[in-house]
Amino acid sequence: MEIVIKIELRREWCKGCNLCVQICPKAVFDRESKISARGFKEIIVKQPEKCSGCQLCEMLCPDLAITVSKTTESSEIK
After folding, report:
1. In the 3-class helix/strand/coil scheme, how is 7-58 assigned residue by residue?
2. How crowded is residue 56: how many other Cβ atoms within 10 Å of its Cβ?
3. Long-range contacts made by residues 28-31, C-beta under 8 angstroms, separation at least 24?
4. 54: number of Cβ within 10 Å
5. Residue 38 phi, psi (nearest 5)
6. CB-based contact 43:20 (threshold 8 Å)
7. Mean pLDDT for all residues in the chain
8. Full-model pTM
9. What are phi and psi of 6, to 5 degrees?
10. Total structural domains in the chain?
11. C-alpha–C-alpha distance, residues 25 and 35, integer Å
12. What are the backbone angles phi and psi of residue 31, rounded to the nearest 5°?
């Protein structure tokens, strides 16, 4: 069994506070290089494969814009 970690970032809820970028121990998040139509540099999930599933980003996001979920997948081919 392999653990699969999925990060969902609800961009419409995100206000670009940058907490997830600063707190992530694996540097999963980053900011866009340009200012968006919403008036700030939007957050992106840049390296999802590096996520350890610690959920610090989810717990600290003031807008509840991040969800980290873990599932198990069988590595067997059926």
Report:
1. EEECCCCCCCCCHHHHHCCCCCEEECCCCCCCCCCCEEECCHHHCCCCCHHH
2. 16
3. 28/57, 29/57
4. 15
5. -80, -10
6. yes
7. 93
8. 0.85
9. -120, 130
10. 1
11. 25
12. -110, 145
Asked if 11 contacts 67 with a C-beta cutoff of 8 angstroms, the reply is no
Cα 26-30-33 angle, rounded to 5 deg: 155
Given the structure tokens 């979920």, which residue do they identify?
69
Is residue 78 domain-resident? no
- In the numeric block, the tokens 């392999």 are attached to 2
Per-residue pLDDT of 45-76, as tens digits, reads: 999 999 999 999 999 999 999 999 999 876 55
| pLDDT value for 12 | 95
Domain CATH number, residue 33? 3.30.70.20
Q: Which residues pair with 72 in a beta bridge?
A: 3
| Residue 4, both tokens | 């699969």
Which two tokens mark 33?
């290089």
Domain assignment present for 11? yes
